[in-house]
Amino acid sequence: MVEGAMKNRLRELRAAKQWSQSDLADKLDVSRQTVNAIETEKYDPSLPLAFKMARLFKLPIEGIFELDKD
Amino acid sequence: MKWTLKYTKQMIIGRSREVISLFSQRWALKYAMRMIIGLIVYAVVLLTVCHWFPEKSPQHWLVLFPVLAAIIYIAATILRAISDMDEMWRKGVTETFAFSAIATAFTCFGYRFVREAVGAPEFHAEWAFYLMWAYYGIGAVAQWLRGR
């Protein structure tokens, strides 16, 4: 739960689909707390989870996550 | 004031629901049952062994085998439960256990020197068990504060 150097658009993408954090958590097979921690950038997901998200939103991983240059 | 009370009540209810939903998950129930079984076996084995083996028996080391079997079952159950957790929880629990194990090991090792230096009471092996959980609690609070 270390504050990572990754930025993400998960909240924005989820809102566009009108899903709650629980809905997204169910689709990704993780807890709601994990979705919240990823959205608030307190936790960086594993590579398999990042791929799952990319597949779910039909985007490349770079379309969701971005390495913070700072 | 009224607003604060309402907000606090909502927060407590919300948190409680989250905790209940977490513990009502199928994996939690499955592993809780296994832990209960493991702990009952552990207690029964300990009591039986203490009853059967007279004090200062030359075969005292044999006691280790049945107790070890119960310990291995409990440890394996904990490991399986952790590996079945959601990835963020798994990371948090693993880090907390690592902190607890390292802190307990260094406390047990360093206590001897402290004892010799300041004349503290003799260390009892079972203290390590309580220490480990105390450090686990500290680690869990630190994790929670970091993730807030």
Summarize the structure.
The complex is a heterodimer of chains A (70) and B (148). With 70 residues, chain A is mainly alpha-helical. Chain A has helices spanning 10-17, 21-28, 32-39, 47-57, and strands spanning 6-8, 65-67.
Can you give keywords for this protein?
heterodimer; A: 70 residues; mainly alpha; two-stranded antiparallel ribbon; 4 helices; 9% strand; B: 148 residues; 0% strand; flat
Largest interface: A-B, 13 and 11 residues
Largest sheet of chain A: 2 strands, antiparallel
**Largest pleated sheet of chain B:** none
Beta content of chain B: under 5%
The helix content of chain A, as a percent range, equals 40-55%
Radius of gyration of chain A: 11 Å
First-to-last CA distance of chain B:
25 Å
Describe the overall structure.
The complex is a heterodimer of chains A (70) and B (148). By secondary structure, chain A is mostly helical. Helices cover 50% and strands 9% of the residues of chain A. Chain A contains 4 helices and 2 strands; from the N terminus they run βααααβ. Chain A has a two-stranded antiparallel sheet with strand order 1-2. In chain A, helix 2 packs across helix 3. Chain A starts with 5 loop residues before the first strand and ends with a strand. The model of chain A has no long low-confidence stretch (mean pLDDT 89). Chain B has 148 residues and is mostly helical. Helix content of chain B is 82%, strand content 0%. Chain B has 5 helices and no strands. The mean pLDDT of chain B is 82. The chains are: A mainly alpha (70), B mainly alpha (148). At the A-B interface, helix 3 of A face helix 4 and helix 5 of B.
